[in-house]
Amino acid sequence: MSYGLYDYDRRYRRRFWSRLAKTLLALVLVSALAAFSYQLGVEQLKSREVSLMAEIEALTTAQQQAEQRIAELRQVAQTAQVRANELEVLYQRNVPSGELAKLVELAARRLSEGVDPARLAFVLEQTANVRSCTARETRRFVLPTPLYRGANTSVAFADGAVTVTGEGEAFRNAEGNREAWFDPTQPVTLRFVQAGGETSETKGLLPIQKSVVVGDREFRFTVSPGARSFVEVSGDNCRFP
After folding, report:
1. Annotated domain spans of the chain
2. Which distant-in-sequence residues (6+ apart) come within 8 Å of 102 by Cβ?
3. What is the helix (H) or strand (E) element at residue 167, kind and residue range?
4. N or C: more exposed end of the chain, with fewer CB within 10 A?
5. Residue 142 and residue 140: Cα distance in Å, rounded?
6. pTM for this predicted structure
């Protein structure tokens, strides 16, 4: 009986310690796995943080470069717009119009038909109207604008036979605000008032040429931009016809 009891207790203790050892081993393995997983997660988070910081830095640099490029392109566009406006003004001034355009078209047609350019130039050189004209005079006046209607806004020729006046668009400064003087790059309106009150009007970009017949005299005017606010009127008069 004593031997059987001893054998049973020993086997019980063996099973107990075996189970305990297995449990402890499982706990150790689970703890090790948890620690490994935790450390792996920490390393992944650090790696992700470094990657995100690098990505943020790259995006910030790209944004700064894009903003700089946009500013450069805006400046290029503004410069191109200013140049386009200048070219438009030059085009309007230099491209023939009116009677001159008709003469240019006629000359081009004659040249295309085989007329010798030298002969055409000779004919033009020899063509003239012999007329009795006064000496040419140049005067100036302040061209009125919506912001200025003061003094010195007209000039008279031949003791008031013809008075020249008009108006222009107010100049806009860099801030877009209007100034009192006129903008010489914008079309103007010129009025030629005869002593009897009859008025003729011309609109366009300066310089502008205009002829006015008063009785037996033809007044020929050229109006050009002068110093700021002013236009210069050069004119003479000839016997008509």
Report:
1. 1-95, 96-128, 136-239
2. none
3. strand 162-167
4. N
5. 7
6. 0.47
Q: Where are the beta strands (DSSP E) in the chain?
A: 137-142, 155-157, 162-167, 170-172, 178-182, 188-194, 199-204, 208-214, 217-225, 230-239
**Neighbouring-strand partners of residue 141:** 231
Measure CA 42 to chain center: 56
CA distance 203 to 131: 28
| 147: DSSP letter | T
| DSSP states along 82-131 | HHHHHHHHHHHHHS--HHHHHHHHHHHHHHHTT--HHHHHHHHHH-----
Q: Which pLDDT belongs to residue 82? A: 67
240 and 211 in contact (C-beta within 8 Å)? no
pLDDT in tens, 114-152: 878 877 776 666 555 566 899 999 999 999 999 999 899
Residue 141 backbone phi and psi in degrees, to 5: -150, 160
Joined tokens for residue 105: 């078209």
Compute the CA torsion angle 129, 131, 133, 135 (nearest 10 deg): 50
The Cα 151–Cα 226 span in angstroms is 17
| pLDDT tens profile 139-188 | 999 999 999 998 999 999 999 999 999 999 999 999 999 999 999 999 99
Structure token pair of residue 141: 């006046």
Averaged over 5-27, what is the pLDDT?
77
Euclidean distance between CA atoms 120 and 118, whole angstroms: 5
